[in-house]
Amino acid sequence: MTESFRRSGEYPQGDQQQSAYTQGDAQQSAYPQQPYASAHPASSSSDSDSADFSTSSVNPEWPPPPAYEPAQQGAAPTALLTEPVSPAPAAPRRRAKGPLALLAAVAIAAAAVGGGTAYAFQELTGNDTVASSSTSTSVVPTSEKGTVAGVAKAVSPSIVEISATSNAGQSTGSGVIITSGGEIITNNHVVSGASEIKVQLSNGKSYTAKVVGTDSKKDLALIKLEDAPSGLTVATLGDSAGVKVGDQVVAIGSPEGLTGTVTSGIVSALNRDVTVSTDESQGQQQQQQGGGGQWPFEFGGQEFNGDTGSSTTTYKALQTDASLNPGNSGGALIDMNGNIIGINSAMYSAADATSSSAGSVGLGFAIPINTVKADLDTLRAGGSDS
Known about the structure:
Strand content: 25-35%
Distance between the termini: 125 Å
Shape: globular
Helix content: 10-25%
Number of strands: 14
Order of helices and strands: HHHHHEEEHEEEEEHEEEEEEH
Structural class: alpha+beta
Strand order of the largest sheet: 1-2-3-6-5-4
Largest sheet: 6 strands, antiparallel, barrel
């Protein structure tokens, strides 16, 4: 390989060349490392005798370019020096899981199904709780809302016939299914003193029931089916505080053993003071005398359906002109949305009525459902009579 520099004496103008080399040394001192000088060696051909550094590819007097383009102050970094900085991705939203999501789904589903809210929640959670709602909740399908037929279709499966056998004989009443486990609310005087209780569902099937608790002061009793079947239709308990005089109502029960009888009318009055007997022997005596299961009561200072005796209690009742007859006791008084607003308990019928004048005269009374709901814990604990 030919050498990069000429031997001395080959340049005709040595002094000038020396000066040039001197300047070159100075230049090399200013820029100690010149990558371009080594990258472009001098030509070794015979024609290079006429060449000088003025025609070289690199002029020693010029500063060499930097290895990289210097970054400008304040400028964004180039792709050669660093990777582009991407904005941090937004944290993905986490969807609610577990019980909170389940409860939210149930809340949405509840708003959509309307009247089935309380019952659907009861079935999902598996709690044997009472289905309860305000009177604005509709149990009746929208297409039949506000009709007696719609109310009867929706609520009749929740109403039962009760046959109670005692030393005085057998009496017939009604009851309302309030839990899927087979709890049934009825009047105390329907099951008072009973040694055996039979319950017939709306589908005609009969089951034995036992008394859970009684409260003679409110004329209420709670019984429960033994070996209760699955799929019982639970009634929705409304809010009797929202009931107004003139509201349309439907009554369902088993008057004279006619299971599932439906009648209708209006709320005639509120907060009527009704006095009933708390002595079960009074009711048994009436049954023996052909009272047909009518329970004696007092209203406005007068006695109806016999002697109430000396042991009595008074409660505030809803008055209705819906036809009630013996056997309706313990059955349901229902608003037009299908909510239970009262438990029918007393009805007037003339003692001297003949075949031409027998029947309801439009004076019936029901225990407000709010009174029933407030008494449920007491009844489940055995009642106030235990």
